[in-house]
Amino acid sequence: MIDFPHIAEVCQSTPSKLVMLVVDGLGGAPHPDTGRSELEVANTPNLDALASRSACGLTLPVLPGITPGSGPGHLSLFGYDPIKYTIGRGVLEALGIDVEIREGDVAARGNFCTVDDQGKLVDRRAGRISSQESVPLCEQLDQIEVPGLEVHILPVQDYRFVALFRGDGLSEDVTETDPQILDVPPRRVEALNAAAAKTAEAANALIEGAQEVLGDRDRANMVLLRGFSQLPHLPQFGDSYRLNPAAIAAYPMYRGLSTVVGMTVIPTGSTFADEVATLEEHFAEHDFFYIHYKPADAAGEDGNFEAKVQALEAVDAYIPRILDLEPDAMVVAGDHATPSILAAHGWQPVPALVHSKLTLGEGVPAFTERACAGGSIGSIPATQLMFLALAHAGKLVKFGP
Fold first, then answer.
1. What is the DSSP string of 131-145?
2. Which of 63, 104, 150, 284 is most buried, with most CB under 10 Å away?
3. Which residues pair with residue 292 across a beta bridge?
């Protein structure tokens, strides 16, 4: 854990290499027709074989019953208490596309969405429209004027964008407009305290302007804003753990999160194949690599059980290439569960494994929720996984005399 008071005493810099593969939305839940989760249905021979040679268990991203966003889920895996270190998604998306965030700026993560003629949500992601369609829409929204402030609309990827508010007297303490369900209208932005009134007023003015600009469209005819946030200040990952860390992520939000914690973000392409190729190309340059896989989460959020199964099978095919690099330790984990039956993030514990020359196997037959529950790691807070990984990589020394 990054706040362990003796972290400087137990962490040591070594040449050993550690790879952390985060499968976004990894965990699932049993399908009511079969009683099996996505991982239990998927054909994942490489992950199963790796689990049989690893220390396995389940991680809890926040607390029992608490459903985490991707930011808290990742921070937990990196050893940060997600309750203490809260970061809104807006600033992460902005940093992920290399937007300059100044002290006092407020950034929000935006989604294009689709509403019906009564203003009720019918698709929170506007059919996941492509960047080719969304970029011109962002250019139109960027022309909206909000009195007394600079407001910029910056395309991120597909249906996502960043709304950046710049001016005096702004605050991140406002509510989001995404109700997280369909057949209800988007919410208005509300100030959580008096100091946030200006931000709430500006955000609502932007939304009203967007409604005028987009209202005649059949889809992507409205916007949702969430994750209002300002620039955070966190303990730096590399300094704390005495690592030279790198991040490889195709999606901007995860590059932004890596930037916040102080990892070197290595440019890569738009697919996981590109990410693995980037890992291979730069493997000699760092001693810790975080590599991110997104498709399992996207399929789970869409409520598509079969697509999530396919996404898990797809990432499985890349495991041999990562192992061929011969990292001294490898972690496979998830930032949270995204059960297809919920079509949303879930609170369920998430499978995890740690592999090194010290793990000879402990009878875990497969990389699934039920199988990993019987592993030696047991069920632990996700914040504790980082120390286990460091220990297996030989990067921790004895604590105390």
1. HHHHHHHHHHHTT--
2. 104
3. 22
Is residue 201 a contact partner of residue 188, using CB atoms and an 8 Å limit? no
Helices (H), 283-349: 295-301, 305-316, 319-324
* DSSP codes joined into one string, 163-188: EEEESTT--S-B--S--SSSSSPPPP
Per DSSP, the three-state class of 192 is: coil
- Residue of 298, 332, 297 lying closest to 316 (CA atoms): 332
State percent of the chain over pLDDT 90: 87
Nearest to 288 by CA among 252, 251, 236, 339: 236
Whether residue 256 is predicted with pLDDT greater than 90 in this model: the reply is no
pLDDT of residue 8: 93
User: Could you tell me the pLDDT band of residue 100, with boundaries at 50, 70 and 90?
Assistant: confident
* pLDDT attached to residue 254: 92
Predicted local distance difference test score (pLDDT) of residue 86: 84
Distance in angstroms (rounded) separating the CA atoms of residues 315 and 136: 33
Quote the mean pLDDT of the chain. 94
The burial class, CB within 10 Å (0-12 / 13-18 / 19+), for 191 is middle
Q: What is the DSSP string of 97-113?
A: TT----TT-EEEEEEEE
3-state secondary structure of 304: coil
In this structure, the strands spanning 378-381 and 55-60 are parallel
222 Cα distance to chain centroid: 24
Query: Which pLDDT value is given to residue 81?
Result: 96
Model confidence over 359-400: pLDDT tens digits? 988 889 999 999 999 999 999 999 999 999 999 999 999 998
Q: Could you tell me whether strands 264-265 and 160-166 are parallel, antiparallel, or unpaired per DSSP bridges?
A: unpaired
Residue 211's CB: how many other CB atoms inside 10 A? 15
Region of poorest pLDDT, from 120-129, 241-250, 274-283: 120-129
Would you say 157 and 129 are in contact if contact means Cβ atoms under 8 Å apart?
no
CB 37 within 8 A of CB 357: no
- Please report which helix (H) or strand (E) contains residue 223, including its range: strand 222-229
Output phi, psi for 120, to 5 deg: -95, 145
Amino acid 330 reads: M
